[in-house]
Specification:
single chain, globular, 12% strand, 20% helix, Alkaline Phosphatase, subunit A, alpha/beta, eight-stranded mixed β-sheet, four-stranded antiparallel β-sheet
Length: 531
């Protein structure tokens, strides 16, 4: 027997107290201090990429040519999608150039026209036959940002006909493999027509109206249809705007009111050293730091008009201030929920992952044609999901992958026009308008014609249905609606299109937790690997 039994029991008590403390810490770390959710999803990660139509990545799914790139063979019983089939393939497509497969060696392409008005013209009253003439671009090479002017072929002699090109699973291999093992929607659309900023604003607020007309990208009706930069952002370089409607809200406002931790994490938001996009020399200027993509095209990492929360005074971090501590990531302090991507992984490593996280890749990995490409994009997406799957959070996490706009790339499927607009200065779906029914203009705010082009949407999660293709009509605000419903925040209001959003719930199976469902991929090839 111990000579000091009281000391023995004291030590045991300390061990038990430590265990209780650890248990409480684990509970806090796994989000149990957060408000209840209506589903088993306690952590949502939204990977918001750039400029891809559904056909551009999935036209041939699940059948790849296997003539180059990474080999892809579909699983038995893989469902088909609404892709490019007869009579829309060559030589019968109604466009003046025919759809064609882009090879693995053609991963780098020229950026196409994706303006609000021009995309409507391409749809041509729903005939979907004017893509070459209205959104095709005649560039032949991409030279990057001076002085880093590496000339990279990006049209391959096709001129405006490049807009009809699509990849298959030999190039966008990772996304096809995620679709094989989790859930994909083939009926999802941009909330409206137009480029990046409207798509980003719709993702977080469902509204593009109520902004200052200090930029030509904002119409006389105070609606954003182009890419103004957020006013006051320290990285602004040109025309900008900010929300001026006092009734405008975003999902961050709703999550704050509910006490839910959240953040927008963007590559380059607060980098301290790297190569300058202006001088090509080492720099500590956050706004100039960038990277070259796989093809050698250089771009800045942080792109101001891709950061939607910076347009709202309530959620902006215009000076790009860092969080006061790792424990405050996801909570309100001087960073105001706007962070660098490194902050996300710092929070995850400290077991403080926010309940809702929006991840925005640095420019060279965001998938945007012209300065990024499917191979760089694959690197970012796969690295992110592989890391998440190795954390203790995976069992209650859902990752949603979607896009801000289509870049103008051809897609044969027109979505329903759930919101009309009759502004002859900017609307052109039917020649001079996008419908004239005032009852189908949410809030009475014009210049929000939509739905726009079809885009990919995937859910990667232990609760996602397996090898499943959902045909529910959804859009960017469907993600907004999922957050609102899951954390019971209520809606945005003031004409937000979240009130019309289709559900994402058909992509999930909450009846059983498939926590063993993990898919680790090689970031370079997109092929399955052992963890």
């Amino acid at each position: 027997m111990s000579r000091h039994p009281l000391k023995k029991w004291a030590k045991l008590a300390l061990i038990l107290l430590a265990a209780v403390g650890l248990c409480e810490a684990v509970q806090a770390d796994t989000g149990r201090h957060e408000p209840d959710t209506t589903s088993p999803i306690k952590h949502l990660v939204v990977i918001f990429q750039e400029n891809v139509s559904f056909d551009h990545y999935f036209a041939a799914y699940p059948n790849a040519a296997n003539s180059d790139g990474s080999a892809f063979w579909p699983k038995p019983g893989t469902p088909t999608v609404n892709g490019l089939n007869e009579p829309l393939l060559a030589p019968n497509n109604p466009n003046s150039a025919q759809p064609f497969r882009l090879s693995y060696d053609q991963a780098e392409t020229c950026d196409q026209d994706h303006a609000y008005t021009d995309e409507q013209k391409a749809f041509d009253n729903g005939l979907m036959d004017k893509f070459v003439e209205t959104v095709g671009v005649s560039n032949t090479v991409k030279v990057g940002i001076p002085p880093l002017t590496t000339a990279v072929p990006c049209a391959y002699g096709l001129g405006k006909g490049l807009v009809m090109g699509y990849y298959d699973g030999n190039t966008v291999t990772a996304l096809w493999n995620y679709a094989q093992n989790f859930a994909m929607n083939d009926n999802s659309y941009s909330t409206g027509f137009g480029p990046s900023s409207p798509g980003a604003l719709n993702l977080v607020s469902g509204q593009t109206h109520g902004f200052a007309t200090t930029s030509s990208a904002v119409t006389a009706n105070n609606t954003v249809i182009g890419d103004p930069q957020p006013t006051g952002d320290i990285c602004d370089t040109r025309d900008n705007t900010t929300s001026i409607d006092p009734n405008n809200k975003n999902i961050g406002d709703l999550l704050n009111a509910k006490g839910v931790t959240w953040g927008w994490f963007q590559g380059g938001f607060r980098e301290s050293s790297g190569t300058s996009a202006v001088t090509g020399q080492p720099t500590s200027n956050t706004c100039q730091i960038g990277h070259s993509n796989e093809a050698g095209v250089f771009s800045a990492d942080y792109i101001p008009h891709h950061e939607p929360f910076q347009y709202f005074a309530s959620t902006a971090n215009l000076q790009h201030l860092s969080p006061t501590s790792v424990s405050m990531i996801g909570r309100t302090d001087q960073a105001n929920h706007q962070y660098d991507l490194t902050d996300f992984w710092n929070a995850v490593g400290a077991h403080r992952m926010p309940a809702v996280s929006f991840l925005k890749a640095p420019g060279y990995q965001d998938g945007h044609a012209g300065y990024s490409d499917p191979l760089d994009e694959q690197q970012f997406i796969v690295d992110t999901i592989n890391r998440l799957e190795k954390t203790g959070y995976w069992d209650d996490t859902a990752v949603i992958i979607l896009y801000d706009d289509s870049d103008g790339w051809y897609d044969h499927q027109m979505g329903p026009i759930i919101n009309q607009s009759n502004d002859s200065a900017h609307d052109a779906l039917r020649g001079t308008d996008c419908g004239t029914n005032a009852n189908l203009m949410a809030g009475g705010y014009p210049d929000r014609c939509g739905y726009g082009p079809r885009q990919p949407l995937l859910v990667v999660s232990p609760y996602a249905k397996t090898n499943f293709v959902d045909h529910t009509v959804t859009d960017q605000t469907s993600v907004l609606r999922f957050i609102e419903d899951n954390w019971q925040t209520g809606g945005i209001g003031n004409g937000s299109l979240d009130e019309k959003a289709g559900t994402l719930l058909n992509m999930f199976n909450f009846g059983r937790n498939q926590t063993a469902t993990k898919l680790f991929l090689d970031p370079a090839t997109g092929l399955p690997v052992r963890p």
